[in-house]
UniProtKB/TrEMBL annotation:
The keyword Phosphoprotein does not apply. Coiled coil: none annotated. Pfam families: Lipocalin. GO terms for molecular function: lipid binding. Keywords: Lipid-binding, Pyrrolidone carboxylic acid. Residues 41-106 form the Lipocalin/cytosolic fatty-acid binding domain. This is Apolipoprotein D.
Amino acid sequence: MFLISNPVQGIATVPNVQRPSELIALFGGSIGGEPGCIPNYIIQDTDYTNYSVVFPCVEAMGYNIQFAWILTRCKGLEPDKLAELEANLARAGVDVSNFEKVDQTDCLFYTDN
């Protein structure tokens, strides 16, 4: 498990407008896909306001590496909503027993304001 304690910047493009939840994401030039490759960052679920559930899939050193994240705009989600999202991921074949809650007590949050 990698926990990143500083901001990560990236670029995401939608290669096929018929499938807007499938993105090609590049993060700092070292993590993610390259332009022209197949989508590597799948938005599995979102309410467009509070959370997004992301399932990235990348090839690295000959291995297929898969992750799943529940990303929130605020510090955490209501327990019922979190349980629902984890259940959805489990139905999709993701082993959520390895999920770790990130302590956001002293995290800095960046806004456009």
